[in-house]
Design brief:
Blueprint lengths: L2 H5 L10 E6 L6 E2 L5 E2 L10 H12 L9 E5 L2 H10 L11 E6 L7 E3 H7 L12 E5 L1 E2 L4 E6 H8 L1
Antiparallel strand pairs: 1-5, 2-3, 3-8, 4-7, 5-9, 6-7
Length: 159
Amino acid sequence: MSNTTIFRGLREESLPPQLYRVQHGSSQAQFSENGNLMSQSSTGLITDKAALQEAVICHLNWYNREDSCFLSVFSDWKHACNWASQRRDDSSPSTEPSILTISTDSNGLVVFRVERLVHELGMPSQIYYSADEYLIFRYIPQALITEREFLGEIKRKSA
């Protein structure tokens, strides 16, 4: 089965106008040469719902450092700011966390709401996720990244 067939009915169709991605020094996702933000496993093929469930469980397990085909994003700006603050490493200012604002105005973006996936796929109840958390499959096109603000800039603006 193809990803498209498996994702049918699970993709989130009703998205907020923008989502927020926290990019920090330990992020597995990296920018490609053409500016797309790529998941660590950008070629992963999900062959069935069991494989999708396993990929989501592995991604949401913060102790698991295996490559993931997902990028976590939030719909709540304040949550993204708090998350970025928790990932700040004062000993390494060159890896200051940033928040990417992502436009959801694209049919090509494959987005899942974590809360819905957990319910629809019958995942274990001990899975930790945030109510405003979404997963983007494989990559975020550079054209949909409308803004990138570093944590220091955000803090200066709000002071």
